[in-house]
Design a protein that fits this description.
Layout: E1 3-8, H1 17-32, E2 40-44, E3 59-65, H2 71-89, E4 96-102
Parallel strand pairs: 1-2, 3-4
Antiparallel strand pairs: 1-3
Helix pairs in contact: 1-2
């Protein structure tokens, strides 16, 4: 179950968050090949964020998943989430950071 958690310094008053959630859910679902019902999206606005020494619109996102993350998936996530942030919240792609975490990374497959 992928979970995308986004924090931004953009005020969300007047933003169509339903459209944001819908598009983000579809993108994450498609990239991971999971049903939309398995995808969680969190969006927090008006967070105190400074990026590059200024407070222009910026975002920090973290995606956590149990498997399914590789370099191709990471590239697609950066492009697609960056596009949504630019379209819906007017955040330039260069002012967006994505942290990717696979909860199964480093686990050994063992039978006891």
């Amino acid at each position: 179950m992928p979970c995308l958690d986004i924090s931004t310094n953009v005020c969300l008053d007047g933003v169509d968050t339903e459209a944001f959630f819908s598009e983000a859910t579809k993108v994450v679902s498609s990239i991971f090949g999971k049903p939309e019902s398995f995808v969680m999206i969190l969006l927090k606005g008006s967070v105190a964020i400074s990026f590059g020494g200024n407070k222009e619109p910026a975002a920090f996102a973290e995606i956590v998943s149990m498997g399914g993350i590789n370099s191709e998936v990471k590239k697609k996530l950066i492009v697609e989430i960056g596009t949504i942030l630019q379209k819906k919240l007017l955040i330039e792609r260069s002012r967006f950071v994505l942290k990717v975490h696979d909860t199964t990374a480093g686990r050994k497959n063992s039978k006891m």
